[in-house]
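Internal ticket - ligand job 672, magnesium ion:
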Amino acid sequence: MASSIVQFDNVRKTYQMGPVTVEALRGVSFDIKAGEYVSIMGPSGCGKSTLLNLLGCLDRPSTGRYLLGGEDVSGMDDDSLSAIRGARLGFIFQSYNLIQQLTVIENIEIPLYYQDRPEAECREIAHRLAARVGLDHRLAHKPFELSGGQQQRVAIARALVNDPLVILADEPTGNLDSSSGVDIMKIFDELHAQGKTLILVTHDPGVGKRAQRTIRLRDGHIESDVRN
Amino acid sequence: MSETKVQSGLRKFLHELTLAQLQRAMRLGFRSLWQHRLRSLLTVLGIVFGVCSVIAMLAIGEGASYEAQEQIKSLGSQNIIIRSVKPPDDQKASQGSQSYVLQYGVTYTDADQIQATIPGVMVTLPVRDIHDYVWNISRRVDCDIVGTVPWYTSMRNYRVARGRFFTENDMAARSSVCVLGAEMVPSLFPLESPLGKHVRVGGDYYQVIGVMETRGHDATPADATASKDKPAAFRMFVPLETIKMRYGEILMRRRSGSFEAERVQLHELTVKVDSLDKVTTVAEAIKTVMEHNHKKKDYQIDVPLEMLRRAERTKQIFNIVLGSIAAISLLVGGIGIMNIMLASVTERTREIGIRRALGARRRDIVTQFLIETVMLSGIGGIMGVLLGVTIPFVVSHFAGMRTIITLWSPLLAFTISGLVGVVFGIYPAIRAANMDPVEALRHE
Ligand SMILES: Nc1ncnc2c1ncn2[C@@H]1O[C@H](COP(=O)(O)OP(=O)(O)OP(=O)(O)O)[C@@H](O)[C@H]1O
Ligand SMILES: [Mg+2]
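stdout (structure tokens):
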């Protein structure tokens, strides 16, 4: 049995909006093992993005414990969380989130930039990943010169560049037409086949079905956690 | 956020920044500035003009005060100069009557009393000035004939270029020798060396025994404050005793049809004080003696040391005024830069969120924005220095003013502009770093 990479133990997240307390997550517990491909689904406002932000160490749980690769990250300070994001996590967003002033290759390099790797090494790794997502002929282009599908492939290459423990994707196909969406999902399937751990938030049942396991959320609770 | 948090954060951040990181951050910053070239240029104009005007004004001020100080210094800072001045009310009276003999000015008695009674007086230097034509056969120049003593040269820091100055023996013998000012030599002796030749003044001949060194300006106190483009007066030096014998005490001058007679014993008396710190007390004592001896104010006392101090004080005030102008313009420039950086931070919220999500720590964001601001103000500083160094050259070339660019002024101006970048960059940078990554990522 593979070891747990992500362990959520009764995690709550509350937001204080003036006098109103919004409970976005009300005690969520689950384990994700290495190499799993998990989709998170649920109606709008059920807390999917909140959960993904916690998984991505962009935010801290209000209570509860989060172990990433066996390490408790729920109480870490900002610098340590940044280091963990840079070294162990890969992000893919619905709106690609590429930096417009930078070229494709430079966008791919960003996570390595903050790891203080030698520049030549960064270049080489970034090249390799660009080739892997089929963009090695577009390295000097700026993001706005690419199609949505191509931009999302740049984002995937960027998420892979630091060889992360977990890849987190928030509606990666949300902005794409169906054929580019399928291209992206094929890359995800390949990554899964190579043994990467993937967590993906989606509204699209077709996309959700490709994952091995689906966690359904409702009003901040886990409604169901099933294998497909 | 608390001040200490900022300070400790800054210290940590400077400590851990490696050269390679700095280089990369600078390249990144430069690109981002280059992307908005026009905006960057407009942003730094405040700094450019601030720095440039400070350097240029300092250079011009320094040049002007240098000239004034050089002139005052050439009078000798240990000297006190008493000059005879025609009293203004007597001038009117003399116009009416032709036989009136006007008597005024410093006397031999004054000189003797000052020398004998005031402690601290080392030597006195009497000078008698006669205005007349000096001839060499058919060549003629209008000249001040200065009757003085052999120690004139050493007291006035005025050296003989060729030949020699007259000696005690020349004085005692009342010999007819003279030393010419360098400026008049080309007019009187354009081809030959004047040494050993004779010049004629009225009916008397004087042998030229020496020529003085060239002076860029005339070393009289009046000139130190007067306009600079007045050419140095022609001067010829003759032993005082010789002058006394030749001219007596009454000088006749033909002026606008009528004769004017003046009785002046000494035109100028220079008193040398034995040490610098006694100059002021001796000057006071001289004032007392002179006030006692003269009912009318027919003399003027100049103390070069005090003039020098006044000039220095003026320069200090000038520098303070300049400094304030500089500070204000740099402040304004800095505020302009901060304003743009704040706008830039807001504009780039999304980028900040992306970078934070991909592993940038707070201090990486601080570095990025701080370096951008410092580069902006630094580039402004360099442009200001270049412009500020050129302007004095142009001014001295076209306006003929002396300008002096001291090394420290561009260095200081540049350093301050860099500091302005740090000071006004820190707030926008910290604001960028303190953004919540999740919110920054959601920003449109
Ligand atoms: N920063 C915040 N401040 C206050 N409330 C928040 C904040 N972020 C999320 N919430 C609340 O938490 C709940 C869950 O939001 P979340 O964004 O996780 O939903 P979601 O499942 O991602 O929805 P969608 O599918 O529409 O993206 C919502 O009720 C939302 O209003
Ligand atoms: Mg969402």
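Auto-summary: Chain A has one domain: 34-46+77-227. Residues A 48-49 surround magnesium ion (ligand 2) (CB under 6 Å).
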